[in-house]
Structures are given as structure tokens and as C-alpha cells.
Amino acid sequence: MTELLWLLLPVAAASGWYAARKSSLKNQQQQVEGFNSAYFKGLNYLLNEQPDKAIEVFVKMAEVDSDTVETHLALGNLFRRRGEVDRAIRIHQNLIARPTLNMEQRSYSLLELAEDYMKAGLLDRAENLFQELVSMNSFAETALTNLLDIYQQEKDWDQSIQIARQLTRDHKAQLNGVIAHHYCELVEKAIEEGRPSEAMSLSKEAMAQSADCVRASMLMGAQAFRNSDFRAALECYKRVADQDVEYFPEVIAPLLQCYERLNDPKAAIKYLHKVVKDYNGISTVIALAELIRVHQDEHKAVDFMVEQLGKRPSVKGLKWIIERSLEHSEGKAHDNLTVLDGLIAQLLKNKPVYKCKACGFSGKAMHWQCPSCKQWDTVKPIHGLEGE
After folding, report:
1. What local confidence, expressed as pLDDT, does residue 369 receive?
2. What's residue 377's pLDDT?
């Protein structure tokens, strides 16, 4: 709404200029005064969040003075915001067709029409207009930002990288992390198409763009594991804890597989003890408890879990203890524990595992780019009693 108010301000200036120019003619003077009155009436509706009434006022203004560009721009913007994209497109197309538009008016009309096309899902048409604005060096940053959005929607990662680099270079945008993700998308495509050497090269490029790119570390670790270079894979997975420890649950399973292939459970236990001190999530605790149970002593593992649950209460941790108790129980106690285990499983079954820290989107699947707000690296494991 704020941007729209700024868009409407020129209408007031234009109407004042119009009034001064026509002051010699009384009837036209009255018409302009009516125009001013209508404008401020429409503005008041906007300030009171009554867009439908504002549209009614501006439609009447456009009918009275069909040459007022700013009124038509405001009207088209309102239609788009209300979801009437077809009407917005017609208004902006008619504006662009006017031969009397100056460069600034034409540029703004092109921008508005491009955004209409985006809202309508006509991405090819929107892309062409945004590219025209970039070539004109008019509203270039806005146009490039929208082009980046289009290419991401179309999964054209090469174009996305090019546009993101241009935004970083020309407009000081902080997009290194985004560019790294685009390279990671190309890595996954190269792996899928059987081009491992290219995949590794692209992974290194992603890491060069952002040293904190967890996804690049995970991809490099997976590639090293496939090549049976388990020590290299292990280093990649360990790097995740240093880059962003909140993503560490995503690499626990492959990390432990590396230790298993290297036949070094003691090193695995030692390393997870270190992570447990720095990370408050329960997944690491459960993984460590399992290692202690298998390679040291089961009672020691249970005692460790009980101690940790006192520090970080967790339904998942409680379930682990119940499962261990089930293995040594019988009769009525076994039946009661089975019911309790089932209830906890049902409780956890429908709970989301991940949540976007930017918009609150939640779900059970991991997304590097939030499906809702489209931001990168904002979807992370949920913490708390029923979560991580």
C-alpha cells in the first residue's frame, strides 16, 4: 500500500499544475478542483484500507480525464493487487500504446505491465519486458530481481547465475549464497545425467561462491563417498557442523557410514561427544547413544540418554529409552511399554520436521529454497520437545 501511495503523489502535483494552467477559464477551474477533490477522496480510501472504494473513485477520474497517465498507472496497480490481472494488463497495454508518453512514463508502464504478466503466469512476456528495461537501464535493479525470480521458477540455473552476478556487481546485492545454491542445482543435474567430473567441478565453484554453503559440502561428501574416498567424505560432512550446526542432523547418517567403512567406531564416538557439547539437538544424542550401546555398554548408553534428557527434554529421546526397555521386558510391562511406544509414534507421525525461519512454512521434507517465501537456507529442523 505504501508504494501505491508514492505512485499516486504525482497525481496531486499534476492536478495542481493543471489547475494553474487552466485558471483563466472558470468552468475548467471548477473541473480541476473537482479532480483534486476526487484524488484526495481516493487517497483517503487507500489510507483507510478501502481499495474497492478507491478503485471506484479512480475509475471515475480516468473517465473524466483519459490523458492522466498517473491515474491509469494507479488504477492498473490497484486492479493487479485485487487479483483482476486482465483489467490491469489492458490498462497498462493501452498506456504503452500512447505516442505522447515520455521516457519515464513509458518505462514505468513497461514495469507495471511486466509485473501484470508475472502475476498472470505469463513468464515469457514478463521476461521480455524486464530484459527491455535492463537494456534501457531503467528500473534495472527491480527488473533484474524479477528476472532472477523468473529463471528460478523455470529452473534455468545458468541464467539465474548470470542475473545474480549482475545484481551483485551492479547493485551491491548480497547473493553469493544464492549463487552457490544455483551451482548446487547444476551439480545435482550433472550427477543425475552421469557427469561426475563436472559435478565435482561445479561443487567446488559453489564452495568458492560461499564458504558457508552446507549444501555444497554435503554434495561433495556424497561424491567422495561414491568414489570410496571415505576420509574425504568424512571431512566434508564434518565441515557442516562448522558451517551451520543446525543442518548437522542431515549428515549424521552418511557421516556414521564413513566411520563404519573406516572401521573406526571410537573416533565416531569421540567426534559425536564433541558435537553434542555444541549442538542442542536430540538427533546427535540418539546417534551417540546408539554407538555407545553397540560398541561399549547398553546400560552406559541408557544412562547417557537419561542424563541428556534432563538437559534437553525430548519425545524422540524418550521413545529411544522405551524401545530399549521393550527389548528386556515381558508380560504386562512389555504390553504397557508397547502401547506407550505406539502413542509416542502416533504423536510424532503428523508433526512437521522442518520450519522456515523467514515465513513460518513447515513440513516433513527438507527444502533448500522455501516453497512459500522462496528464500534460501531458511528451512531448518524444528527444535523443542517434539522436534530436534
Report:
1. 97
2. 95
Instruction: Say if residue 84 is exposed, middle or buried (CB neighbours under 10 Å; 0-12, 13-18, 19+).
Output: middle
DSSP output for 200-261: HHHHHHHHHH-TT-HHHHHHHHHHHHHTT-HHHHHHHHHHHHHH-GGGGGGTHHHHHHHHHH
Cell matching residue 219: 554434495
pLDDT of residue 37: 58
3-class DSSP state of 356: strand
- Rounded to whole angstroms, what are the CA distances from 190 to 19, 106, 324? 65, 43, 43
Backbone angles phi, psi at 279, to 5 degrees: -125, 130
- Residue 55 has what pLDDT? 58
Task: State the Cα–Cα distance between residues 305 and 311, nearest whole angstrom.
Answer: 10
The helix (run of H) or strand (run of E) holding residue 379 is: strand 379-381
pLDDT along the chain (388 residues), means of 10: 45 42 40 47 54 59 56 82 89 85 91 96 96 95 97 97 97 96 98 96 96 97 97 97 95 98 97 93 96 95 95 93 90 89 88 94 95 95 87
pLDDT the model gives residue 278 = 87
- Residue type at 213? C
* Phi-psi map region of 367: left, alpha, beta (phi>0 left; psi -120 to 50 alpha): beta
C-alpha 226/C-alpha 228 separation (Å) is 5
Helix (H) or strand (E) holding 189: helix 176-192
DSSP letter (8 states) at residue 154: T
Domains of the chain by start residue, with CATH: 2-154 (1.25.40.10), 351-388 (2.20.28)
Strands 362-363 and 354-356, by their bridges, are antiparallel
- pTM value > 0.85: no
Give the separation between CA 7 and CA 10, rounded to whole angstroms: 7
